[in-house]
Description:
Chains A, B: One of its GO terms (molecular function) is oxidoreductase activity. Chains A, B: Keywords: FAD, Flavoprotein, Oxidoreductase, Redox-active center. 2 copies of one chain form a homodimer. Helix content of chain A is 26%, strand content 27%. Chain A is α/β, with parallel strands linked by helices. Chain A has 3 domains: 2-110 and 242-311, FAD/NAD(P)-binding domain (3-Layer(bba) Sandwich), CATH 3.50.50; 114-237, FAD/NAD(P)-binding domain, CATH 3.50.50.60; 331-444, FAD/NAD(P)-binding domain (3-Layer(bba) Sandwich). Chain A is globular, with a radius of gyration of 23 Å. Chain A starts with a strand and ends in a 6-residue tail after the last helix.
Amino acid sequence: MIAGGVAAGMSAASRALRQNPEADVVVFERGEYISYGACGLPYVLGGDVDSFGDLIARTPAQMRARGIGVRLRHEVTGVDARARTITVVDHHSGRSTHEPYDKLLIATGVSAIRPDWAKTDLGGVHVLRDIPDGQAIEATISGGAKRAVIVGGGYIGLELAETLHCRGLSVVVVEKGPEVAGRMLDGEYQVRVRAELESNGVEIRCGTTVEGLTGKGDCVTGVQTDHGLIRADMVIVAVGVRPNVELARAAGARIGKTGAVAVNTRQETGVDGVYSAGDNTESTHRVTRRKVHIPLGLTANRMGRVAGVNMAGGDATFPGVVGSSIFKTFALGAARTGLTQTEADALGLNAASVDVSSTDHAGYYSTAKPIYVRLTAERGTGRLLGAQLVCQNHESVKRVDVVAALLHGRGKVQDLFETDLSYAPPFSGVWDVLLVAADRLSREIGRKQE
Amino acid sequence: MIAGGVAAGMSAASRALRQNPEADVVVFERGEYISYGACGLPYVLGGDVDSFGDLIARTPAQMRARGIGVRLRHEVTGVDARARTITVVDHHSGRSTHEPYDKLLIATGVSAIRPDWAKTDLGGVHVLRDIPDGQAIEATISGGAKRAVIVGGGYIGLELAETLHCRGLSVVVVEKGPEVAGRMLDGEYQVRVRAELESNGVEIRCGTTVEGLTGKGDCVTGVQTDHGLIRADMVIVAVGVRPNVELARAAGARIGKTGAVAVNTRQETGVDGVYSAGDNTESTHRVTRRKVHIPLGLTANRMGRVAGVNMAGGDATFPGVVGSSIFKTFALGAARTGLTQTEADALGLNAASVDVSSTDHAGYYSTAKPIYVRLTAERGTGRLLGAQLVCQNHESVKRVDVVAALLHGRGKVQDLFETDLSYAPPFSGVWDVLLVAADRLSREIGRKQE
């Protein structure tokens, strides 16, 4: 039995059945859609994806044809782990039933946080977590919205800023922290992200706290902040997510300090027969060895696979994460992996960083753009800790994955410097910016000639 | 004293001076230019780089201002390693002198191979190794050339095929082997490269051997092959390069089985005080531990740095290569690192490969293109051996560097599969094609659950 049918849940279902073709796999999904790429939602609104339907990797009919039971609008609301039964509410009928299980996966994901001021019936106020949210935003845009306020300058807010701007709306991003992308990048790199948005006509108001909404009739008309009123006929609330841990807690599973469900590397909660995977679940950071809650698509899919294999009698382990993430807004790509300097400092690590600017392609090549890299390592050991990249050829920041690969194996700065990266002028400089950064960082931390 | 002033030579000069600011560093360059990016030559002809001058990283005046002596059109023609003197011919005056040295770097690079049939005075017949070659090709194009034959289907030939086609010439590539890109990729991937060229209107004739040239007056008019005559008013000979080892041999240095100069990891030839670096020099392949001669820009620069540090009293070592290379022709990017299946077989390794096709971005994202990956590993150990990628978004094949980073550390397929790659729809699929390939290859070689 699988509670939750998006990334982790459906990955687990597929894997469980591959591991044991005789397994009786049933997925309960409280929403109307399964197996969709939530990360693609902004791109449907922006037109880079034709329709919400394109985000759906597999339909319930396809899953059923493969032998996986799918119950849409069925929510698992309770667990009796001793009796091995779950309580399932059918949102069609409102009826509630008890179902036995042998193994249970809790893949309940996260919910968008709605502060008190956002708990409103006013039209035009949205979050963006699932397909119905996206459809509601599309309806507001199509209904003639002209002024959008996005509350929250994280990556979803910034992706949406581009989307809505390109759809012709004026866009204001309101962020209570001192900068946008504050949880992802160090300060200098946050500034580059903000500059890209501002140069494209998006207004950014940092250090600004939302206090309420104004409305006329049943429509939102503005956002009241501690720095005044901002008129708006559309408000997107993108202030973060919280893991849906109620079901896990009901099952007796431990909730970690991160606020997400604690599991071992097999995605076991410690409650016999109960697994947890996906955005609602903690993972281990391979660089710090600490528990973290970094809900992202690949992590969720990977956890789901591991859980599915193990639930069906196999033996798989989740390798942990190194904190890789990436996003695009307008032409700009921003990526990070490992730790930022700020994060390393907060953990008490003896970390050093270098900042390097170069070009993403050979400097003389027509499409070359500046690329900015911060590389961070531990003094003394020379161990790589992390990297941050920003470039206006957005795809060029994907080279962050080279650092991710080295972090995975606890590589050193010297390993990065010595890596035989591919080179031709349309792809990079002869000394790729990562190599330049590694060279400088080696000298900075004094481990060059070890 | 440094013989050769392009990639390795100038890297060595800069590094030597940084290592020891008191060092007396003199570079002899037989040509007219130093410190230029030879890999950019096709892109000047194609217009992606404005002028040949843009390829020059540093002029002689700039180098002299930094305290590095530069003697253009001065060729080192002899060495007396016991007396520590070199013979230098000044091509301006034709005069020859002897100069003493303390440390000598031989960075004489490679020469384009000219088969007997290409040793001609006919106008319109070119190789492309240096800036004067590029200027001569430009003159032929500007002079009204209409039909180009490129002899040789390696990456330089294929880069030039795009260039000349875009300049309005009809282009025929003649390759004596069974396919283009034959030394770089396995067969299926060679075919994809050929298809890209053919679909853009370049004619490819494989299995065709050139027997001679035809001319009228002092201009070339055609290429005689074993499959008939091909009319041409321009012929580019791109059949490969050979290392310039004469000077090293004269110094008493050993020439390796690869045909290039043998050195240790400090770039020392074994002859006291004599170093060798760059395209004329062997390196060690980190995957096979064998000596190889893979002349490429990054390798040359890296070797030069190592030599420069050591010549000036420091201690640096060359880490070896993993055989990474990459090129673009038309929209297509092709990349490889490590070994192809063909190469692994030839070495007697127990290798397995999987082929995976996916999309470079999320499948539903507007700019997504098919991407084809072959991943190769050793059965039994699960050690990664290599990867090949082809995609019509050329930059998407740069992710080959993730595999290069893992090869550097002798990583396993499972390490690649477990790597926390960055994901957002404009950059990759949630399961990047490299992860999909690693997953399939793990199963193929039966090391999945180790």
